[in-house]
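Task: sequence design from structure.
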């Protein structure tokens, strides 16, 4: 049988003694309170970070909702601007058509007036030509009829009559 060794020869005894000595030292120096305080500080820091993260998340959600609202408003404004632009384009098109119609009517009237003026000028030219032809024909007829003794009498009577008409 083996002889029992003394307890102080066994290494497990020394490990256990060192462990309990360390625990006693930590307790005596109030290390457990410092360790607790460090854990409490770490816990408080983590809690603060969680609160800050929640606050940031809430702010981000608020910003998201705000931007979504602004996007809807912007889309609505864009649709209104597009509708307004289309209405303006329609009005401008109608005005342009009306202006073109007025311009066409004015130019048509001017062309008709020029045609009437040309017709009147042509009529005057025809009348003038007819008068010239008539005068030439009358001159020829009178020249033929004023030949001889009858023509001389007529010229003398006209000259005598001229003196009365001038005074």
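Answer:
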């Amino acid at each position: 049988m083996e002889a029992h060794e003394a307890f102080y020869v066994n290494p497990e005894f020394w490990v256990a003694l060192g462990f309990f000595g360390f625990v006693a030292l930590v307790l005596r120096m109030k290390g457990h309170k410092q360790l607790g305080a460090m854990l409490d500080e770490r816990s408080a820091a983590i809690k603060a970070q969680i609160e800050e993260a929640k606050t940031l998340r809430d702010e981000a959600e608020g910003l998201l909702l705000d931007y979504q609202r602004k996007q809807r408003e912007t889309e609505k404004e864009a649709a209104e601007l597009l509708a307004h632009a289309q209405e303006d384009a329609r009005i401008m098109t109608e005005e342009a058509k009306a202006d073109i119609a007025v311009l066409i009517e004015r130019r048509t009237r001017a062309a008709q007036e020029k045609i009437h003026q040309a017709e009147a000028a042509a009529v005057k030219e025809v009348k003038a030509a007819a008068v010239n032809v008539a005068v030439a024909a009358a001159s020829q007829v009178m020249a033929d009829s004023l030949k001889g003794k009858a023509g001389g009498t007529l010229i003398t009577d006209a000259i005598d009559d001229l003196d009365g008409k001038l005074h």
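The chain has a mean pLDDT of 86.
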